[in-house]
Amino acid sequence: MAEPAIHLMRHGHSQGTPATTEVHAAPDWPLSPAGIAQVEAAAAHLPPGVRAIVSSALPRARRTARILAHVTGLPVVGQTPLLDEWRSPSSVHNVAASDYPAGYRAWRCRRVAEPHLAYEDGESLLDLMARANRARGWLIGCAARHGTLLAVSHKLLMGVLLRLDQGPEAFELASRDDWEFTEIRPFPDAG
Questions:
Q1: Beta strands 184-186; 149-153: pairing state
Q2: DSSP letter for each residue of 95-161
Q3: d(CA 107, CA 118)
Q4: DSSP 79
Q5: Its GO CC terms (predicted)?
Q6: CA nearest 137: which of 191, 177, 85?
Q7: Smallest Cα–Cα separation from 39: which of 5, 74, 85?
Q8: Nearest in space to 189 (alpha carbons), one of 116, 124, 139
Q9: Residues 62-71, mean pLDDT to the nearest whole number
Q10: How high is the pLDDT of residue 2?
Q11: Which pLDDT does position 19 carry in this prediction?
């Protein structure tokens, strides 16, 4: 018998996300009305065989999972902060890159070479990698219990999760990835 599959879905568009620039989202940003519509539309395109949904503990991912459950009838069987987005420093939430503090810009230049360093109250890349490894184990366990799984999470965390073998460079690659809101990707070799 084949191992259950795991699929990763980015949450819907959140309130506060500007249309023209990338910013670090505050943890409490909820889905926007456009995000709710995206999720409702995406529910019709879930991969075949999905038996259950899990999500990050952040509001925009939890709401995405609840909407999907309501539309599809699939159960939400868990949520965990292991699937939360990379914890960016609170001083750069909703700040355009052109307005980043000088210290944060300097940290960004060193973050891969010195992955143990964190900026202010943000998460270091080593801490993110360790959390992504724990998230991988959690997802595999959930899939073993519930069958093929849809995990609703966030761009940077999922990008790192898909590139765990690349070490701290995974963060840089994930940050440049064009993972659209409600886009679903398979989590290969999860078993």
A1: unpaired
A2: --GGG--HHHHHHHHHTTTSTT---TTSPPHHHHHHHHHHHHHHHHHHHHHHSSEEEEE-HHHHHHH
A3: 8
A4: E
A5: cytoplasm
A6: 191
A7: 74
A8: 139
A9: 98
A10: 66
A11: 57
- The band of 181, judged by pLDDT with boundaries at 50, 70 and 90, is very high
pLDDT at position 21, please? 58
Ramachandran quadrant class, 73 (left: phi over 0; alpha: psi -120 to 50; beta: rest)? left
Give the SS3 label for residue 86.
coil
What percent of the chain has a predicted confidence (pLDDT) above 90? 85
Q: What per-residue confidence (pLDDT) applies to 23?
A: 79
Q: Which CATH architecture has domain 6-186?
A: 3-Layer(aba) Sandwich (3.40)
Domain regions of the chain by residue span? 6-186
HEC profile for 13-63? CECCCCCCCCCECCCCCCECHHHHHHHHHHHHHCCCCCCEEEEECCHHHHH
Q: Which helix (H) or strand (E) holds 76?
A: strand 76-80
What is the distance in angstroms between the CA of the first residue and the CA of the last residue of the chain?
12
Mean pLDDT of the chain: 93
Q: For 100-114, write each residue's pLDDT tens digit.
A: 999 999 999 999 999
